[in-house]
Write a structure and sequence with these properties.
The structure is a single chain. The chain is of the alpha+beta class. Among the domains are: 30 residues; 106 residues, Aspartate Aminotransferase, domain 1 (Alpha-Beta Complex). The chain is 39% helix and 25% strand. The chain contains six helices and nine strands. The strands form two sheets. The protein has a six-stranded antiparallel β-sheet. The longest helix is centred in the middle third of the chain and has 36 residues. This is DUF5655 domain-containing protein. It holds the Pfam family DUF5655. InterPro entries: DUF5655. It comes from Streptomyces griseoviridis.
Length: 204
């Protein structure tokens, strides 16, 4: 293997390309490129089993001056790289599941707010979705990673604050209108918030 003959390789590079090129050889991520007129399926299988950074590249000659190259197989990295790729795939899958849950939650909030009574309209704004009667009664922010934020036309002083659920934002800047922030993480939270939704509807 190339890694077992570093000195010989650097000597070859020095002879062909000079000392500067030889000093720039990076051994942290070696890659082997095999170029041939063709490869068998056994070659491809062997490369994929090897778990090293190896490319099999097939060449074709077109006339005397034109050369075409085609990658037949490409394997990147070591076992650690494969493990990292698996971890990233698991993380992406988890994020997709979480995103789907947040979209389902947003749908449930939408259904509840539109069902509060006659005359409720939904209006899409740039940074939030507004639910209006005569004026905004609720403003729904786009889903975050693990929660939804809804701002209601309810006086926070009349609501017992619940950490992680309700918050007085009357002195804080935020997108949308309403001084009471409601944080929703599950469908049960939507049920807990229904009295607050109705109070906001009455106030609007």
């Amino acid at each position: 293997m190339l890694m077992d003959h570093r000195a010989e390789f650097e000597h070859l590079v020095r002879d062909r390309l000079g000392a500067t090129a030889a000093s720039r050889v990076l051994w942290s991520g070696p890659r082997l490129i095999c170029i041939a007129g063709d490869f068998t399926r056994y070659d491809v299988h062997a490369v994929r089993e090897h778990r090293r950074s190896i490319d099999l590249v097939r060449y074709r000659l077109f006339g005397r001056d034109l050369l075409g190259l085609e990658t037949v197989a490409s394997v990147r990295g070591s076992v650690q790289v494969a493990r990292r790729a698996r971890r990233e795939a698991v993380a992406r899958a988890a994020a997709d599941v979480q995103s789907a849950a947040m979209l389902e939650l947003a749908g449930a909030v939408d259904e509840v707010l539109l069902g509060l009574g006659d005359g409720v309209n939904r209006v899409e704004r740039k940074t939030y979705r507004a639910y209006q009667r005569l004026r905004n009664l609720a403003c729904l922010r786009p889903p975050q990673r693990s929660k939804l934020l809804v701002y209601l036309k309810v006086d926070p002083k009349g609501v017992d604050p619940v950490p992680g659920f309700t918050r007085d934002v009357s002195g804080l800047g935020h997108h949308g209108t309403g001084d009471l922030e409601v944080q929703l993480r599950t469908l049960r939270d939507v049920e807990r918030a229904q009295d607050l939704f109705r109070a906001s509807y009455a106030a609007a």
